[in-house]
Amino acid sequence: MKHVLVSLLLSAALWAQGPAAGKGKAGPPAGPAPKLADGTPDLAGVWTGFGSNAGDISKGLKAGSEVSMQPWAVEKMKTLKSQDDPQANCMPSGVPRGNPYPWRFVREGNRLYVLYEGNIHSFRQIFLDGRSHPEDPDPTWWGHSVGKWEGNTLVVDTVGFNDKFWLDYLGHPHTEKMHTIERYTRTDMNSLQIEVTIDDPGAYTKPFTTTGRARLMPGEELMEYVCQENNIDLIHVNAPAQLP
After folding, report:
1. Reduced to 3 states, what is the DSSP secondary structure of residue 3?
2. How many Å apart are CA 81 and CA 84, to the nearest integer?
3. Is the preceding omega at residue 96 within 30 degrees of 0, hence cis?
4. Which of 8, 14, 52, 225 is the most buried (most CB within 10 A)?
5. What angle is formed at CA 48 by the lines to CA 128 and CA 86, rounded to 5 degrees?
6. Averaged over 148-168, what is the pLDDT?
7. Domain boundaries along the sequence of the chain
8. What is the C-alpha to C-alpha distance for residues 99 and 21, in angstroms, rounded to an integer?
């Protein structure tokens, strides 16, 4: 019964905006990926999906990758409960974990912003002006991100994460040593191919690469969603960390 309750509560909390992610509108027109005046791909629009398996990051890896954890990380996962999940507590999902809620790229000069509908309406900024990471960045939920174009692929390099968010629903952890490389390729009008390489020697014995996809949601807008409002069910989610 507890497992059923957990699944229902997490589904209600994390999928509350499900209808907003698919309102029955016609799909986007087919065609090649659009480009901006400077020749770089145009990533604008509302997207759903992300760069990993949100349930279990060890699923859907790039060929040749494996999730090999440090012993302390294996033991830590055994102690986690679903109510410990920062995302269930309305915190940002972090990189590369996705969630059911849509998100949007916004380009402004040499900055690219990612706006997230889910949880606390958080955002990331990705610097495209060639700057380097700060030598000692303050740890944050989204880290410090710099980006560049490699052909039609946006490559985002991020450091300076805090260690508070989980990589998936099962609670795969990370440390402040985590360094990610995200690769976004708009393969056509409707699709983004996403790869995220995670290098965290504090929690894993070697880097690994996740794969995922996002699809365009034409005509959609981000909705207001305040996860913290009336979030009264969390105290009942006391089973071991598991898939929703």
Report:
1. helix
2. 5
3. yes
4. 52
5. 85
6. 97
7. 2-236
8. 11
Three-state SS at 142: coil
Query: Is the CATH code 3.40.50.450 the one for domain 2-236?
Result: no
Question: Cβ distance 1 to 239 under 8 Å?
Answer: no
Cβ pair 175, 202 in contact under 8 A: yes
pLDDT of residue 188: 95
**What pairs with residue 113 in β-bridges?**
106, 125
For residue 164, give the amino acid letter: K
Q: How confident is the model at residue 185 (pLDDT cuts 50, 70, 90)?
A: very high
